[in-house]
Amino acid sequence: MPWRVYTIDQKYTKRDGTISYYKVKNKKRIKSNRYKPQKRGFEKKSIYSKRFGYLDLYNREEQRSLICPSGYSISQCFNVLSKLWFGYKRAMNSDKSIEKMVKYAKGIQSVQKDMGIETASFPHLGLYGDSLILYDKKRNRLLFEDHSALKKKQQEYEKWMIENSKKIEGSLHKPKEGQHVEIFADDKYPYEVIDCEPTVPELLIPDEEKGQSVIIFPDLIPFRDQLHRNDFENQTSE
After folding, report:
1. Contact at 8 Å (CB) between 161 and 140?
2. 190 preceded by cis ω (within 30°)?
3. What are the tens digits of pLDDT across the range 11-29?
4. Buried b / exposed e across 21-38, counting CB within 10 Å, b at 16+?
5. In 91-180, where does DSSP find H-type helix?
């Protein structure tokens, strides 16, 4: 069994009643340097991986030897997941930034996919996974929904968007009969900046000494599209 050396502050009381402290080195034997399997309660379900099976059956040393397709081990993925969930909760509660929430949510789903476990679903961000699970403050499960069908629909929609964008780009860059594409360099850089007198912004700044103020009112003209459509039809008929 290995030794572990640490220092402590020893208290010493003199005859005159004064107290002094001095440092003393102490040794302690460690029973074992091996990690034991993680204990989970009866209410907590074990995490199942498609690649490695139930992860709670492995101890920490064995989890280090389980390598994911990304090259990281299961223990490293668990560490990254905890940090990503902390960043997601901070972005949701304190920062209140949707961009950061989407960033952390995509990171959580990518790490879970790399581990082979069920991916979390974020329907309020438009990111669907395998399941949606909600817990209370005491880590008791409140809600469970299966979002695997929505996940497949989202994947199909993303594939369709990629294929459609490729078709649009191909049709725009493909010349028609008798046409050809010309590529030329922009040799007019840097541009010359001309100083102009700012006239319009001064009109929008009210003069408080003269009692002026800015009044903002909505445009409540109804059926604007119908009016424009009738004008266009009248012009074409003429």
Report:
1. no
2. yes
3. 878 888 888 887 888 777 6
4. eeeeeeeeeeeeeeeeee
5. 98-115, 148-173
